[in-house]
């Protein structure tokens, strides 16, 4: 059995997990050697950045060596997770055995804090992309990035693209197209695409710094490394 695991921690962004989880949950229907699980320290509901809580299907101890492991992102709670040594230890332990290590949005910052992005090309939410360099990664402004066994996605909805790519990689193009059709993934945003050339990333840095100061208030060493104060 090849377990594809999504990691719970308090306050994560729901769609970062729910999007790719929905896509990859179709994979066992086509190839029963795969199983999709959601991991936590226990099976109590964890809060998200919406009113909906999410419960793990399994504990970390029940699935200690998944085939693939994915971290969702978020705001302040994700910054706090970067300083959670117990969580980072779980991630490192799983990554030591995993064939695929992945993230969506700022979940890549947790991978970075765990020491898993050194020398890798990686992406994350555009507001936090420059922080990847603090962990020895090369920030890339792409929807998703594959570097060796590390697969990172940009903000929120990019997780669906990342997951469809992974289905294609694991099961072939035809199955990936069937999954895309079944979830009717054919984005047509009412306001059109984002005009990235006009996005002022620097103007959002104070917001990111406030997230870091709040989330890492009890971890001044890491905070200093990331924002210099």
Report on this structure.
The chain is α/β, with parallel strands linked by helices and 229 residues long. The chain has helices at 14-24, 27-30, 76-81, 85-95, 107-113, 158-171, 173-182, 205-215, 220-227, and strands at residues 2-7, 34-40, 58-59, 68-71, 100-104, 121-122, 138-139, 144-147, 150-153. The strands form 2 sheets. Strands 3-2-1-4-5-9-8 form a 7-stranded mixed β-sheet, with helices on both faces. A two-stranded parallel ribbon has the order 6-7. Helix 1 runs parallel beside helix 6 (158-171) and helix 6 (158-171) packs antiparallel against helix 7. The longest helix is centred in the C-terminal third of the chain and has 14 residues, at 158-171. It is globular, with a radius of gyration of 17 Å. The model has no long low-confidence stretch (mean pLDDT 96).
Quick summary:
It contains nine helices and nine strands. With 229 residues, the chain is an alpha/beta fold.
Largest sheet: 7 strands, mixed
Query: Which strand order spans the largest sheet, edge to edge or round the barrel?
Result: 3-2-1-4-5-9-8
Oligomeric composition of the shown chains: single chain
CA(first)-CA(last) distance: 46 Å
Number of beta-strand segments: 9
Structural class: alpha/beta
Beta-strand content: 15-25%
Label the overall shape: globular
C-alpha-based Rg, rounded? 17 Å
Mean pLDDT across residues:
96
Number of helices: 9
Secondary structure: helix percent: 25-40%
Q: Could you name the ranges where pLDDT drops below 50 across 5 or more consecutive residues?
A: none
Spell the H/E element sequence.
EHHEEEHHEHEEEEHHHH
